[in-house]
Structures are given as C-alpha cells and as structure tokens.
Amino acid sequence: MSKHRRSTLLNILIILGTLGIVLYLGSRDNGLAKAFAAIRSADWRWVLAAFGCWVLFTVLEGICMQVYFWFHNIRLAFGSSIIVGLIGLFYSGVTPAATGGQPMQVIALKKRGVPAGVSSSCMVAKFFVYQLATLVLSIVFWVLHPGIVSTYVNQVTFWLILLGFLVNGISVAAVLLVAINKNVVRAIINLFIWLGKKLHLVRHEEKLHARADKAMEDFNASVDLLKHHPGQLLRLFLLSCVQLMFLMGITYCVYRALGLRELSFWEVTTLQFLLYVGASYTPLPGASGAQEKGFDLVFSGVFQGNALGAQLMWRFFTYYVTLIIGLGAVIINSAGSIRQAREEAEEAIEEAEAAIEAAEAAVNDDAVTEQGDPSGEREKAASAGQADSGERNRQESSDCR
C-alpha cells in the first residue's frame, strides 16, 4: 500500500473514530435513543432544505472556479467544475487542516487542459476570498447580534473563537504575501524541490525546475491580471459570501426541522459562524473532534435537550454528505482518467500500426524496384550487344569492298 493510501486510510479512521466516540458518549443516559427519535420525527421539509443548502454550497464552489477561468479566457464545462469542486471538498475533508483539497484540484484541472500555473492561482484566489469572507461575515454577524453571543458562548469558547480569528487572519495575510511577492513563491517551490531531492523523490531536478518556471510564469501572469482588475476578486468575494451563507444556513434548517423556532435565522447563523471560525484551524481531518465539541458547547442550550440529534444531523449535512458524494466524484474522475489513458493508448497503437504498415509498404516497393533493375540491365546489355554486332558486320562489308 502506498504512503498516500495509508495516510488517507488513517485520516478516515480518525473521522470514523470521532463519530464512534460521539455515538458512545451519546449512548449514556439513553441520549442516543432520544437523538434518533428526534431525527425520525424531524420535519422532512426542513431536512430537504438542509440538503438543498449543501447542494447550492457545492454548486457555488464550481461556479467560483468557472468565473475565475472565464476571466482568463479558459472555458471549463459546468459538469467538470462541479466534479473538480467535489474532489477538492472531499480531499479537504479527509486531510489534516484541509491541506489536500487544492493540490488534488490542480491535478484534476490539469487533466482537463487547464495550465497548472493558472489553476494554482485560482486556488490561491479562492482560498483568499473564502477565508476573508469568513472573517468579514463572522465579525459583521457578531457586531449585529452581540446579545446572542454573550448568552450562548462561555468564557472558554470565547477565547477559542478569538484564537480562530487570529489563525485565520494570519492565513489570509500569508496568502496575500505569497501572491504579491514572487520571490517568496519561487523560494517555496525551490525548497520543496530540494526536499524532494534529499528524500529521493525527485529524479530529474532540471526538468522539474523547468516545469516549475513555466507554472510560475502562468501563476504570476494570473496574479498580475487580478491586480489590475480588482473587480474580479470582488466578484469572487461576493460569491464566497453567498456560498458561506448556504453552508451556515444548514444549522438553521436543522433547528427548524427539530420543531424549534424561538431564535431567528440571523441569530442561529451568528453562532454557527463563530463555531466555524473557532474550530476550523484544528489540524485534524474535517476538524474532527473540535467541530463536535464546539457544537456541544455553543448549541447545547439552543437545541433544548436535542443537542445530540441536532449535532448528528448538522454534521451529516455539513461533512459526511460531502465525503460520500465527493468520493463518488473522485471515482468518476478516476474512471475518466483511465478511459482517457486507454483511448490515448489505443490511438498510439493505431498510429504505430499505421507506421509499421507504411514501413512494410516502403520495403516492398524497394524490393520490387531492386528485382526490376537486373532484367532492365540485361535488356540494355542485349541491345548494346546487337548494336556492336551490327557495327562489326558493317565494317566487314566495307573491308570486302
């Protein structure tokens, strides 16, 4: 088994282990039975609304990519953008600190003809505006609804949320620095190539540097284009804001599905934004453990005794659905890659067979030509002999006279 597969399997085990712990803790005091009873009695209309929010969140993930590529005169099919978006969401969910999503999206886009430099700049721009939108919306909701925060967020959770703001703010600043300073990007690439060589993962260092330089040119050209057209970043920012609202809206749909209506959409969404910021920096796949514990700390009073059932529903729609459907996208993408490789191999075989047939035909033509030359020479020799004989006869006749 490869290191990549072992790492992915370990991360999945962590995710399942976290779910197992939640279910085990919930089984005490008959909490799990109450949770499943609450889920069974949930209003299916709001359950469908929660799923609809997830669908729209995922569709906007693909639309953000399409908007970016349209600006760079690259046409990407809508279905491909959705598949690539799901691939990114899946690998972000199964890798620590969501580090695997963007690289896998770059690979998937490269197979669809998008230059690596352009797709990398797209990932950087999307990450930047998404994190910025998260921070801006969280602050805005907090400022507009301070009462709900002071009611349901205790002192410990408050400091964890502030830490989340700090970490996310640093990540935004770091991305901005990388995008602006070309030397920083080049130094990071050279560092990774050097590490790969030391670990014997890189065989052809010069070729890798050449490919990296080409990708850097595309990346810098894309970033420079955005610098001169800030309106494109604004569009991506606004799309990310809408995308986040659908993701955060899932919590309110769960709230209403369980028959609760005391708090408004904006109040529930405020708490969800703060939970999202406070738990997102956890270096575990899907922030497992931190999300569940954070939900319990923030929403235990909101759901009035149905916190476990609400947590299971919320986590299903915000995380597990992504893993399930995202895995399907990964399989579809892999099947497409295999089909494309098979078609390319068949084309190569057909070209090779055509070349062999052409070579055989050329050899046969040469053989025919070589076989025809001797008979031609004999005919020429016979004609020359007859001419010589005739000349001798004429000379003998002259001598006799």
Instruction: Report the total helices.
Output: 14
Give the N-to-C terminal Cα separation: 107 Å
Give the number of DSSP strands. Answer: 0
Structural class: mainly alpha
| Proportion in β-strands | under 5%
How many structurally independent domains? 1
Mean pLDDT: 78
Please state the overall shape, judged from the principal axes of the Cα atoms: globular
Residues in helix, %: over 70%
What kind of sheet is the major sheet?
A: none
Q: Stretches where pLDDT falls below 50 for ≥5 residues?
A: 397-401
Order of helices and strands: HHHHHHHHHHHHHH
Rg over alpha carbons? 35 Å
What does this structure look like?
- There is one protein chain.
- The chain is mainly α and 401 residues long.
- The protein has one domain (3-350).
- The chain has 14 helices and no strands.
- It has helices spanning 3-27, 31-40, 44-71, 78-94, 101-111, 116-144, 146-152, 155-180, 182-198, 205-228, 230-257, 265-279, 290-299, 307-400.
- The radius of gyration is 35 Å and the shape is globular.
- 34% of the residues are buried.
- Residues 397-401 have low confidence and may be disordered.
